[in-house]
Design brief:
There is one protein chain. The chain is α+β, with helices and mostly antiparallel strands. About 35% of the residues lie in helices and about 15% in strands. The chain has a two-stranded antiparallel sheet with strand order 1-2. β1 and β2 form a beta hairpin. The mean pLDDT is about 90.
């Protein structure tokens, strides 16, 4: 289509993209997305692994703090199992701490129980962990009357090839 502008004839063109160009662009975007997805999944897994390491450290430190406080308040007790909490919720309820020569006070080893990032999100935080009692061996951890240690409830493999439940 031509039209005259100021006495000159010009060709009028319509702007826009053809269907082939649009399909090509969409195909390129799809390929780029598929290339980025594994990286995003690895990043998400690495973040959850870091969260798991922090949560394990927090709970284990709180168990040690709880045990030390119980030992300070009951120095003559010979049963070592008596120095550990019966469940993880005891770590948030507080324990009496009696330092030598000082006044007794209640300490709270944890504000809240962290959750296992690889466990079922429908479970409460204290139910996401596998517990080990004081009397169970390290190579065959079993729950018991007291909580001596915790481990992940996930049997998945970590990015470094180890299993989360072995951390």
């Amino acid at each position: 289509m031509t039209r005259a502008v100021g006495g000159l004839k010009t060709k009028q063109t319509w702007g826009g993209y053809t269907l082939v160009e649009l399909v090509a662009v969409l195909a390129i975007l799809a390929i780029l997305t598929l290339m980025v997805m594994p990286l995003a999944q690895t990043g998400w897994r690495a973040k959850n692994e870091a969260d798991l390491r922090v949560a394990l450290w927090q709970i284990r430190d709180a168990i040690d703090m709880y045990s030390a406080a119980k030992k300070s308040a009951q120095p003559n007790v010979l049963d070592n199992a008596a120095f550990y909490p019966q469940d993880l919720t005891e770590l948030t309820k507080g324990v009496l701490y009696a330092p030598p020569g000082g006044s007794a006070t209640t300490i709270y080893p944890l504000r809240r129980i962290p959750r296992d990032p690889f466990a079922d999100p429908a479970l409460s935080p204290e139910k996401t962990w596998r517990l080990r009692s004081y009397t169970s061996p390290a190579n065959n951890p079993q729950a018991g009357g007291e909580v001596f240690d915790v481990r992940s409830s996930s049997s998945e493999t970590a990015l470094d090839g180890s299993r989360y439940e072995d951390w």
